[in-house]
Amino acid sequence: MMIFMLGSILCAVSPTAIFMVIARVIQAVGGAILTPASLALVLPEFAVEKRSAAIGIWGAVGGISAASGPMVGGFLVDTFGWHSVFLVNIPFCLLAFVIGLKLLRESRDETAPRTVDYFGALLVVLGVGLLTLMIVQSDEWGWVSNRSLIIFAISFLLLGAFISRCSQVAHPVLDLRLFKLPFVTAAAIGGFAFSMGFFSMIFVNTQWLQVVWGYSPSLSGIAGSPGPLAAAFVAAPAGKLANRIGHGKVVAAGALIMSFGIGWMNFFITPEIHYWDFYFPTMVVTGIGVGLCISTISSSATAFLPQPRFAMGSALNNTSRQIGAALGIALVSSLLVAATKTDDPTSGFHAAWTLMTGVILLSGVAMLTLFRRPTADQLAQAT
C-alpha cells in the first residue's frame, strides 16, 4: 500500500516523461503486491465452501471501483488537471492502511522463506517489457525488421531463463509446480486470455468514445460505467453459482455473453453517436459477462489449495492476468495506430474487437475443459 502511494505521489509531481515512467513502475510494483496479498488475507477467514462467494464480493467491490474510476478520473482531469488523478489515491491509501492495521489478521506460511528471488523477478519484468515494446513499436519498426526480431529473441531468452530459474532455485518468484494442478493451469490460461480481452476492451472502447464520438474524458467515463456496474451486481452471486455448478461452466457462460456483446459492438457500431439505443445496452451485456468471469477466475486459482499456498496461487493467477493485460493493450494499440495510415482509420477498432472476441472465448474454453478438482496425489506433488 505504501509503495503504491509513493508511486502515486511521484507520478503527481513528475516533471518529465521519463520520471513519470519510473514513477508508474513504482506504482505498479505496489499494485502487483496488493492483489495477491489481499486475497491471501481474505481467504483464510472463510470456510472452503464459502470462499468462491467471498471472492465474488471481493470482485464486486472491484467492479464498483472500476465503474467509479473512469468517472472520477475524467472529472478530475477536466476540472483539476492530470496531477489530481494521482493525488486522489493518497487519502484512500492512508485510510486503507489505518483500517488494515486495526482489522486485518496476518496470514502467512511459517515455513516459507523470508527472501525474494530478485533476479528472477528482473528476468520476467525485462522479458515481458521487451515483448510489449516490440508489439507497441511494430507499426514503426515492422514485425520482421531486424530490430523487432532481435528484441523478440532477447525477450524469448529472458522469459526462458525465468522459467528455468523458477524450476531450479529453492524459493522462486513463482512456484511452477502448481501448474501440475489442472485447476491452477485453467485459471492461469483463462486469466491470461480474459485479461487480454477485458483490458483491451476498456482501452479501445474509451478511444472510440473520445476519438470517434468526441466525448470528453469525464463523459466517456460516465458512458462506460454501466458495464462495471452490471459486473459488480453479478460478481457476488457468480461466486455462489460457481460453488453449485462449477467454476468452468460459470466462466464459459460469462465468456460467451461477453463475446456476444463485443461482437455486437464490432458489427453494428457506427461513427454516428447512438448511445442509449446501442452503446448503453451493449455495455450492460458485456458487464454481465465480465461479472461472471472476473471473480470466478480469481477464486478458481485457489479453489482447492491449502491455506499456506493461497498467496502463491493468487500470485500465479495475478501474474498471468497482468501479462495478458499488458500484451493485449499493446496489440490493440498497434492495430489502432496501423489503421490511421489506411483509408479507413476505424478499421483498427474492428480488428481489435475481433481479437477481443477470440481471446475471451478462449478463456471460457480453457476453464470449461481444464478446470477440475485435483487428486490427492496431484496436490501432494504440487504443494
Based on the model shown, name its key terms:
mainly alpha; 383 residues; Growth Hormone, Chain: A; 2 domains
Can you describe what's shown?
The protein is mainly α. It contains 16 helices and no strands. The chain has helices at residues 2-12, 17-42, 51-80, 83-87, 89-103, 118-136, 138-141, 146-168, 182-212, 217-224, 226-245, 247-268, 275-300, 310-339, 347-370, 376-382. Helix 3 packs antiparallel against helix 10 (217-224), helix 6 (118-136) runs parallel beside helix 14 (310-339) and helix 9 (182-212) packs across helix 10 (217-224).
SSE diagram, text form:
Elements: H1 2-12, H2 17-42, H3 51-80, H4 83-87, H5 89-103, H6 118-136, H7 138-141, H8 146-168, H9 182-212, H10 217-224, H11 226-245, H12 247-268, H13 275-300, H14 310-339, H15 347-370, H16 376-382
Helix pairs in contact: 1-2, 1-5, 2-14, 3-10, 3-11, 3-13, 6-8, 6-14, 9-10, 9-13, 9-14, 9-15, 11-12, 11-13, 12-13, 12-15, 14-15
